[in-house]
Amino acid sequence: MFDETPCLNPEEIAMAGEWVNSPRMNRILACLPVEEYGRHVDAMEFVLLKRGEVLFDCGDKPAFVYFPTSSLISLTSTTESGSSAELAMTGNDGLVGTTLILGGKCATHKAVVQSAGGAYRLRADAMRFELGQGGHLLQLSLRYIHALMTQMAQSLVCNRHHSLDQRLCRWLLLYLDRQPGDKLLVTHQLIAHMLGVRREAVTEAAGKLQAAGLIQYSRGYMVVINRPGLEARVCECYRAVKTEYERLFDEMPEPAPARGHPPGPTSLRHAYEDAQAMLRKYTDIYNFAPVGYFTLNASRAILKLNLAGAILLGIKHSQCGQHRFDAFVKPEYLADLQQFQAEVLGGKCRGNCEVVLTATDKRPEALVRIEAAPDDNGRELHMVVIDITAEKTLHEREQYQRALLDNCPFMVWLKDKESRFLAVNAPFAHTFGWPSAEALEGRTDYDLTSRELADAYRADDRAVMASGEKRSFEEQIEMNGALRWFETFKSPVVVDGRNIGTVGFSRDITERRRMEAELRSLAATDSLTQLANRRHFLARLEETHADLLRDADHPVAVLMFDLDHFKSINDSLGHAAGDAVLRLFSSLLRDELRAGDLAGRIGGEEFAVLLTRSNPDAAAAFAERIRRKVAETSILMDQRRIAITVSIGIALMLAEDTTAEQALGRADDALYRAKAEGRNRIALAETPPPQQVFRGVQAAM
Ligand SMILES: Nc1nc2c(ncn2[C@@H]2O[C@H](COP(=O)(O)OP(=O)(O)OP(=O)(O)O)[C@@H](O)[C@H]2O)c(=O)[nH]1
Q1: Is the ipTM of this structure higher than 0.90?
Q2: Ligand 1 site, residue 564, Cβ cutoff 6 A
Q3: Complete domains list, the chain, with CATH
């Protein structure tokens, strides 16, 4: 029938290339509502058809339905003797594969590419599924078949009753209406074939049209240069077909890019561009949304889904219709999903449901939140599916972190670089008397404490951020009327090498401090007398000596005391009585001390006293007061009155002393002398001269 084998010449490629890229160039596809269009487009495949290519032959089972955009397809019928004629032609006005739509198994005609160009094709099974949905595509397809039958019937009438000139005009105009541009890549032989007449007759008729200035032809192609002239000359068969085709598109509810009068190539192109722009926008929003969009029918077959949805399920975007959503849901969640669907379709207001999707080869199991609404008829479910696995994991991790923080015995806080609290733990909020940790978020130290303290904390934070170093300190803060000790650690929070805030830990160490003080005191105290023990007394003696070396203007006196004949008390009355005497003497001693002075028990019944900022006279007066008080005191025990006396040695600590114990040694020597001289008396160490010290004391004795 065609003298060329299937091919594309450069001119055809240029023409096709100009038009190939938009499914909306096909008027049926352009008439589909955007939603339905979006669903089909993904399943379609673009093909560049070569002139002479047979899409299917009579008796074939068509594997695809074609929606030509810039190609033109002839539907032809061939007799047993081999002669053929064109039944109808289909271009961007329709589809090829009507057998499928009408439910037939095999094609009753042949579909052959008459003019090379582009087409989109949909697999037969996908088309059947779409037709089964009863949507706009079905309506349009049936209407198109009606228009096609009109074209066939009109061709039959025309071929029988009208002149070849008119038939040629009809054929050329039908051709032009179905493909872009005004150029027809046809030979006289081809036209003759299509019209079922001899080539010479076509050449003659074409010659007339060319002579009338309506067309121009050269070998292989024809250009229409006066379309109105052709329309004036054509018979009514063309207009009958055209009217039917316009009705097909005009009565569709959805606005189509091409309406009203037959669009010329330019207006058609604009309409396509607008439609394409709108589609691109819509498709982008729909497909690149960060959540999955799904439309399910009553049995939860996926009618439509976007790119994110396809990725979530691990299926191809074009595979909608082949899957049920249930296949991706873990079985234990199916009942809830079904109930959710029933409630949504039944108009009950259920916010969402959460189900777990089974793992795919691209991702592990995913927890998704589904929000849904019914379509207008309450039959389909429009779902937004959000993968909340990460959100849930994050939430759980936050709960763990919160538990960790709240159960931490420290107060913990995080501050931004403006010293605003980003997070604090429950102990922190509790310590400052706030109802919850959350209530402190966004607040500052100025909301918690005095301006002065808040200023200091702010300065600390800045110092930590500026230096990038940790800081720790102990401080005493008045809290609820009581002074409490806190130990605080602050560190910078570093992200990508920048200090963006601080993290702090603090704990109340009031009790620890109290215990430490108690331990220190216990370690320094003689348990029997509650005076300083020997170790503590000697330590203080050392410190005092060091002070004296720095400041010799404040003399220090060291006194040694020893109870006289103490052994006899022990021996005669027992050890407990001896202890009682030691305690009594200690209390007498303590009563005479000024602040800054220290008394210690440095041996069994030996005591020492350190008098700071003293002088020989004052030290002697102190010693004398003690001696007299002891002598005047007696203890009644086992109905016996026990009299006690004490001997005392005094020495001044000298700046020349190389050790503190030298002064103690001199006081001990003086004590020894006091004992030797008869006890119950005071003796002053050799240096400084004794007469200075004893002035007035001797007189008292
Ligand atoms: N009850 C009691 N006795 C103690 C304690 N420590 C030491 N002693 C006794 O104190 C006595 C000290 O006796 P001595 O050193 O001989 O001195 P003294 O009897 O006081 O005689 P002079 O010091 O020379 O007057 C001993 O009997 C010790 O056992 C103590 O903690 N309690």
Answers
A1: yes
A2: yes
A3: 10-248 (2.60.120.10), 287-387 (3.30.450.20), 398-512 (3.30.450.20), 525-700 (3.30.70.270)
